[in-house]
Write a structure and sequence with these properties.
This protein is α/β, with parallel strands linked by helices. It folds into 2 domains: 1-104, Rossmann fold; 109-203, Formyl transferase, N-terminal domain (Rossmann fold, 3-Layer(aba) Sandwich), CATH 3.40.50.170. 35% of the residues lie in helices and 24% in strands. It has helices at residues 13-24, 42-49, 68-80, 97-102, 123-130, 165-189, and strands spanning 3-7, 30-36, 54-56, 85-88, 107-111, 134-141, 151-158, 192-195, 198-201. Bound molecules: 5-O-phosphono-beta-D-ribofuranosylamine (GRF).
Length: 203
């Protein structure tokens, strides 16, 4: 069984879905550790409650990214836990060279919009303001360009006339919980090939 790690900064609902799917056996992976840049993240508590290893790693002085020496510490910890695949789930920092090089092609992220539409933050609000009739979520590989790596899975949800950013976010989140597991299973199975930006399933 392959080892995954989840990096999360906050609420941890995607992490919780991943843990539950591992416990049910619908996600075939071993959760080696969960790492947070926030001591008080609910994600760390959920991890401990389920008996997995929860680690807080000092993110250093920058707000939205990690200085190289701090990011190196994340790399070292992931390597010590023999992690095969790193899954970002609400990790609120831009990933830079140290992690990208150490885990090339082995970092995933989930984003609450149909990329390439609405990258960045507060994307449910942006989707409503733009007036799209459908939004959704995307699991993609993490590359140097934020929210722009090759897409593994997406799910579509309708935007309703009386939606607020919160109601839309909740509808999208349900799908996030489903497709993140689907994407991790695809990548860990190795049954895919990459053609340009396209991830094509082979099994
Ligand atoms: C999710 O909407 C995810 O798509 C985005 O951040 C949010 C994290 O939520 N990247 P949670 O911590 O998994 O509940």
């Amino acid at each position: 069984m392959k080892n995954i790690a989840v990096l999360a900064s906050g609420r941890g609902s995607n992490l919780e879905a991943i843990i539950k799917n591992i416990e049910k056996g619908t996600l075939q992976a071993n959760l080696a550790c969960v790492i947070s840049d926030n001591k008080d993240a609910r994600a760390l508590q959920i991890t401990r409650d389920h008996g997995f290893k929860a680690l807080y790693l000092d993110p250093g002085p920058k707000k939205t990214w990690l200085l190289p020496e701090f990011e190196e510490n994340y790399v070292k910890t992931l390597q010590e836990h023999n992690v095969d695949l790193v899954c970002l789930a609400g990790f609120m920092r831009i990933i830079k060279k140290p992690l990208l090089e150490a885990f090339k092609g082995r970092i995933l992220n989930i984003h609450p919009a149909l990329l390439p539409s609405f990258p960045g933050l507060e994307v449910q609000k942006k989707a409503l303001e733009y007036g799209v009739r459908f939004s959704g979520c995307t699991v993609h590989f993490v590359t140097e360009d934020v929210d722009a790596g090759p897409i593994i899975t997406q799910a579509v949800v309708p935007v309703l006339d009386d939606d607020t950013p919160d109601t839309l976010a909740a509808r999208i989140l349900k799908e996030e919980h489903r497709i993140y597991t689907e994407a991790i299973n695809i990548i860990l199975s190795g049954k895919y090939k990459i053609e340009g930006r396209r991830i094509i399933r082979t099994g």
